[in-house]
Amino acid sequence: MIRPFSFSDLDSVLQIEGQSFPKSPYDWTTFLNLHALYPETFLVCINSHHEPKEEILGYIIFTQDGHIISIAVNPRHRRKGIGRELLKRAMKAPHFKKVWAEVRRSNQGAQAFYLKMGFQITGTVPDYYGNEDALVIQRTLDTIKQQD
Ligand SMILES: CC(C)(COP(=O)(O)OP(=O)(O)OC[C@H]1O[C@@H](n2cnc3c(N)ncnc32)[C@H](O)[C@@H]1OP(=O)(O)O)[C@@H](O)C(=O)NCCC(=O)NCCS
Fold it and tell me: Dmax over Cα atoms in the chain, in whole Å?
């Protein structure tokens, strides 16, 4: 199940963040600011059957024009299609002309994920992460419409 982020999710999101982006994790103020900016497109995927409380499996944050700010899945739950479902939510927004993200050049897992989802590498931003380039990876509306 995918639903909007709520404040009670913050600890779990921070934990996934630290495991997913050890070089430059967002802190709690960044997440709260992102939630204030994008309350409808900061989404979490949950296991609602998990006891004693629901488990946060992953999250995605994207802007109103299709920029994926972040996507991450709990390492214990990767390769189960959770990232795919989260990204499809962004790709289904009807008014987007394209969906795009920046990915570290060294992040081959994420690049494989986006390419599998029909994205293409369209550019490079030198030193985007300080000492590492970003690859810009995107999918346009036409190819999104053809999907599903
Ligand atoms: C990238 C990420 C979100 C993918 O989430 P996920 O739930 O594991 O992805 P899915 O299970 O939906 O994968 C869908 C397909 O993408 C491809 N894929 C996903 N992760 C991959 C990897 N590490 N290596 C190669 N291919 C991969 C596969 O083809 C996969 O299908 P398959 O498992 O049937 O072969 C997750 O690995 C993650 O959180 N990484 C750390 C954070 C990060 O790098 N985020 C992206 C940068 S913003």
Answer: 46
Query: What is the distance in A from the centroid of ligand 1 to the CA of 20?
Result: 11
Tell whether the torsion through CA atoms of 105, 109, 113 and 115 is positive or negative.
positive
Q: What residues does 60 pair with on adjacent strands? A: 43, 71
What the block records as the tokens of 25 is: 């994790």
CA 62 to ligand 1 center in whole angstroms: 17
Residue 45 belongs to what H/E stretch?
A: strand 42-47
CA dist., res. 82 & res. 97, Å (int): 24
User: What is the DSSP secondary structure assignment for residue 67, as one 8-state letter?
Assistant: B
Ligand 1 pocket, residue 145 CB under 6 Å: no
Long-range contacts of 36-41 (CB under 8 A, 24+ apart): 38/62, 38/63, 38/64, 38/69, 39/4, 39/5, 40/4, 41/90, 41/93
Alpha-carbon distance 102 to 15, whole Å? Answer: 21
pLDDT digits (tens, 9 = 90+) for 99-140: 999 999 999 999 999 999 999 999 999 999 999 999 999 999
Tokens of 122: 């369209």
